[in-house]
């Protein structure tokens, strides 16, 4: 099996390193596996210059040529999927099989957007004789993008794919804890001859990088995935310069379980998905509102399956859930559990750290959690589920909408009228019925309320990377 890659910045089509570095730690062993170079102000200036030069070339490259090159790079990533997955498991901790699936998912984002590159259609507006009105969609310009640590491959892929398929250049600041996925993407595009400056990769102190890149006149769009608090800050920084934003922020996903559903199937499916990526997913199903008549059965099955989750090093066979990303997540989750317990909640399984080496946390289920407990309003971002009884679908919808977030929501029912009511009334950018799949390359993804602005994926996914230009053309000079 391959070793962890040497970490570097990628600016203007060339690799570079810096004297100042940060450690990258394996969260399963707490051992250092690499050193991450920290971008200096000069590196960021070079990246801005390179992005401007890359945009001048790439925006004039035909959509077919852009798509062909994206597909060539994606083919390399598919060939290297085991190598990339191995690096992701080392730095993130997720099971190797899940890491491989993430690599494939990232490739699917590139493949979808490569196809969409040729479908950013304009339109002709009907007009009178001698004049034509034509609407064009043109690449917006260099993009400053920020991706999080929880999905080292698929999250960078979304932003890189959308930008370069649209004809934009991009400077990506990837997650410091999990840099290898973005590194491998850069390597693949480098190997197939992406023009210098079209894709630039930097790492460093997030606040320093955002303060340097976003105010630049070169940057024409800010794309961010991360916490609501940081997203609000970056949106404010961008607004000072009238720079548009694409924000995919936090969630606290509700799951409504109606009395007519297959209780055991819904509970098992939910428990398995809740523990995926150790619950460190913005779309993770977290707040379960279960009809009174099936509550005890659902809670029992859910708790049993959650407790049976195989936790361990992601490199070990049979492991279903790896460690948390860092030690901070352990104390945050433990604090939420303690607060809920003091508020009167029942802890039906888990609730604490596993062992003393590695950032492992028990799959945890809280039941009958009062509304005033912190976890009812704050996203736990870990392997923690809340299961509460409700007396009706209306009550469940009211509870689902009671938080400031609106990214994803889920429902289990076989009644068409219940589905219709959920579709009309649940406040979320994505609603999934009888499935816990929140997004696919071909579907738009994004939130409402404090969960963000704009959409990634689907036919809508390239919209933010383009600007609309209307051309009025008179045949005669008037």
Structure characterization notes:
The termini are far apart. It contains 13 helices and 22 strands. Helix content is 36%, strand content 22%. The strands form 6 sheets. It has a 7-stranded mixed sheet with strand order 14-15-16-13-12-18-19, with helices on both faces. A 6-stranded mixed sheet has the order 9-8-7-10-11-21, with helices on both faces. The protein has 2 domains: 9-249 and 451-470, Aldehyde Dehydrogenase, Chain A, domain 1 (3-Layer(aba) Sandwich); 253-440, Aldehyde Dehydrogenase, Chain A, domain 2, CATH 3.40.309.10. Helix 2 packs antiparallel against helix 5 (154-166) and helix 9 packs parallel to helix 10 (295-307). It has 478 residues and is an alpha/beta fold.
* Intertermini distance: 71 Å
Give the fraction of residues assigned to helices.
25-40%
Biggest β-sheet: count, sense, barrel?
Answer: 7 strands, mixed
Structural class: alpha/beta
What is the count of helical runs? 13
